[in-house]
Sequence to fold (480 residues):
Amino acid sequence: MRARLVAAVAGLALCACSALGLTDVTPQEQGCRDCTELNLVDPPPACMSWQCDRVNQVCVLDTEDLDDDDAQSAACVLEGEPDCDDLDPRNAPGLGECLDGQDNDCDEAIDEELFARVQVGGARADVGPLAWTSDGAIGLFVTPSPLALSTWSGGAVAALTGDPPVGSNITSVAAARLNATRPDELLVAYDSVANLCPRVTVGRAAMGVFSEMTDAAAGLPKLGSGQRCPDATTRVFAPSVAHDGERDAVALWLEGDADREACGAEASPVGAIQLEVTPAVAPVGTDPVAIGSQGGLGGVPVVAIGASTFVAALTSASGEVQLLRLTAGASLEAAAHLHTETACGAGCGRAALSVREGELGLAYRAGGCDDAEIRVRRFAIDGADLRPIGDTIAIDAGDVSRLALAPIASGWAVAWSEGRALRYAEIGAGGVSPIALAYEQTAAVTTPLGLEGGEDVVLRSYDANPGLLDEHRRVPCALP
Ligand SMILES: [Ca+2]
Ligand SMILES: [Ca+2]
Ligand SMILES: [Ca+2]
Ligand SMILES: [Ca+2]
Fold:
């Protein structure tokens, strides 16, 4: 505690208050309510002010501390670190930094080091295509030599034994949780080319073992044919999967030649098929459903919003983001339109979906090919329908290459990459928080980000050069 130069004892201070006629109440009732007023009525000497003695609940004369946060004004400080902002008790030496656009700890940097970086799994240059479960907690990636799948969860990396992926040229993987409490039970999909036939294969990981659940040599049936390999040239890629926590799951994929990493590419047909989880995983029926086409960047995210009910986010070539409902039954019902976000631009896509109790969050990249903004929209889940909550929220950003969304206690958190930089913002009742730089990687971010929300926000990324699996843990805010 600082020394008080002039610490009026309770009786003296109260005599002063009474003598000025500020109140007629007893000293106990007086409390500290009139300390600020006392400064106006009875101006103290320079660098002094009437302040609240919280222990005794009386006004005392002390070195100036206008915001009463126990850090003295910079011009008057006689001991300790000065208050860099003596008009705001949220900013003072010794406080923790928080995401509010202010320098809370008075170190002349705003919103710095909000994330503590932890490396997991050591240095490894062998991380290929990478995916996250929709809650951002579990990563799944391909290692090329030997060709295998590995999981990344709870800070640990583990290679899956069992069936190795079949084929070559795996460009993407997908993962969904099969058990809410067990991180080692996953629904898995990957694309590859085997026996000259491009395909998507689904399987299951359980207790460290991966099992192919479709005929790995044949894969899932392609659109419009009922056959698994009607031709060897139709590219099948960018799978996504979701599980409803019970018996139903879906797998989606893209067909065609368009490069979904290139801005402004032609649209790709989107196929979907229902899967049954018993707990073995098997496709239901042999005819996939065409649910539309993907004209924007990235694949088509899909999440479960209830039993047998799923929502997918497609980007049209004309620059709209559409939310479609997929319903599992005897077979997968054709997609029902739920919502459209308009004017998304040529650089639209990279959509992310996330679910919290009773609410669906949608985030996507909008704008041009070299510059972008991030948009976030919230929906109340009403049975099998969605009801928009509020307006679309826009966040200024540069050339966003990866995007992730997660629910947090106060609303939603969104993280994205611009070149090597990872950025972060929160969306709550008060609007969008300032944007914080979470971390800057040595290499441009080229793999999806995992963002785990809840009480402790964790942002996970892969730094391709020198090859590090990083977790960035949000430092708890220590503000009063
Ligand atoms: Ca102060
Ligand atoms: Ca202050
Ligand atoms: Ca600071
Ligand atoms: Ca701050």
Residues 10-19 form the longest helix (10 residues). Residues 67, 69, 71, 83, 85-86, 88-89, 91-92 surround calcium ion (ligand 2) (CB under 6 Å). The domain at 129-348 is CATH 2.120.10 (Neuraminidase). Helices lie at 10-19, 27-30, 35-41.
